[in-house]
Automatic annotation (TrEMBL):
Domain of life, per lineage: Bacteria
Gene Ontology cellular-component terms listed: cytoplasm
Modified residues (N6-(pyridoxal phosphate)lysine): K190
Protein family per UniProt: Belongs to the trans-sulfuration enzymes family.
A GO BP entry: methionine biosynthetic process
Organism encoding this protein: [Ruminococcus] lactaris
Record protein name field: PLP-dependent transferase
GO molecular function: carbon-sulfur lyase activity; pyridoxal phosphate binding; transferase activity
Keywords assigned by UniProt, alphabetized: Pyridoxal phosphate, Transferase
Transmembrane segments: none
Length: 373
């Protein structure tokens, strides 16, 4: 995948790959004059190319490349003043909840969490001080789907911003800004980078006003993605479509196989027609991605599977070419209160798998031997 094209024409010496401008500062041609770049905390040619590509893919007016997905979310929090309230998808990545309830609440911003797939519940949960809806769809890790059109209708009624985390589907499968979101955040570490070798994050923005506010904060706090990391994410994006198609193809095969296993009690995958959000996801996305969660018949079996996989790695993170399996209750959602986790179904028998590009039959064989008594 690529941006609007023509970028190679601006590379020195006709370089096909973007050069890595590994420099902190840029010389001025004269007093009051600039090459367009002055200091890499504010802007850098390698990072600018990456941001331009992301804006094209997400159909954004601007995109900001940050040091991580959490840095991108933190940047968005700077838009809200003390006393603001943000209504969130209840099934959020645990790190997001940790940031909201520690750093966000310390600054006087409050958060509440509801099932955003329940439109009337969202409407009833809005307060006079509510300023934004924060949505993950599909959610992490129980794969609930939120209807963007319904959220946009509510946001317009109450004058709210919509912030959407699009990490799971990426702009290849879903474009939230075209569906009603105002801001899109990504962990670029995941599918966009795609090789488990770089940390990155993005805020993709609709509207000049929001862009100016966020750009000012960005250059002030300095959460800018370094040039080499920008190069790595650009390299990853070149194969985004190829990787995601293969990963989705594998995920569909694995989800269908898991459904028929006696040791598996539930499969959470938006590509299954029986998934409660299947129709909405079909309406607003062009794919279902490669994230699967599932429940096995006991905590003992879950732990054995994690310690028995060979081709699949037991590791945090997701979206890379290598398949990973995670224990959300201990890893991604370890900071979420036990009663909340259990209410959401993130229990001792619950696992999340990020399906990679390996041979699907090899992955199934690995799961089969790991599930065996």
């Amino acid at each position: 995948m690529h941006g609007n094209g023509g970028l190679v024409e601006g590379h020195p010496y006709g370089a096909v790959s973007v050069p890595i401008f590994q420099t902190a500062t840029f010389a001025h041609p004269g007093i009051g004059r600039s090459t367009g770049y002055d200091y890499s905390r504010e802007s850098n040619p390698t990072r600018h190319e990456l941001e331009s590509v992301m804006s094209t893919l997400e159909e954004a007016d601007d995109s900001i490349a940050c040091t991580s997905g959490m840095a991108a979310i933190g940047l968005c929090l700077e838009l809200f003043e003390e006393g603001s309230h943000i209504l969130c998808t209840e099934d959020l990545y645990g790190g997001t909840v940790r940031m909201f309830e520690s750093i966000g609440e310390k600054r006087g911003v409050t958060f509440s969490y509801v099932d955003t797939s329940d439109i009337e519940l969202v409407r009833k949960s809005i307060r006079k001080e509510t300023k934004a809806l924060y949505i993950e769809t599909p959610s992490n890790p129980t794969m609930k789907v939120t209807d963007f059109a319904a959220m946009r209708e509510i946001a317009d009624e109450y004058g709210l911003l919509i912030i959407a985390d699009n990490t799971f589907l990426t702009p290849y499968f879903q474009k939230p800004l075209t569906l009603g979101a105002d801001l899109v955040v990504h962990s670029g570490t995941k599918f966009l980078g795609g090789h488990n070798d770089v940390l990155a994050g993005f805020v993709c923005i609709k509207g000049k006003g929001l862009s100016e506010k966020l750009r000012y904060t960005y250059k002030t706090v300095g959460c800018c993605l370094p040039p080499f990391d920008s190069f790595l994410v650009l390299r990853g994006i070149k194969t985004l479509s190829v990787r995601l198609e293969r990963q989705q193809e594998n995920a569909k095969k694995i989800a269908l196989w898991l459904k028929d296993r006696p040791e598996v009690k539930a499969v959470y995958y938006t590509g299954l027609p029986e998934h409660p959000g299947y129709e909405i996801n079909q309406k607003q996305a062009s794919g279902c991605g490669s994230m699967i969660s599932f429940k096995v018949d006991s905590e003992k079996r879950a732990r054995k599977l994690l310690e028995s996989v060979k081709l699949i790695s037991y590791a945090e993170s997701l979206g890379g070419v290598e398949s990973l399996i995670t224990y959300p209750m201990l890893q991604t959602h370890g900071d979420v209160p036990v009663e909340t986790r259990e209410r959401l179904g993130i229990t001792e028998d619950f696992l999340r798998m990020s399906v990679g590009i390996e041979n699907a039959e090899d992955l199934i064989a690995d799961l089969e031997q790991a599930l065996a008594e």
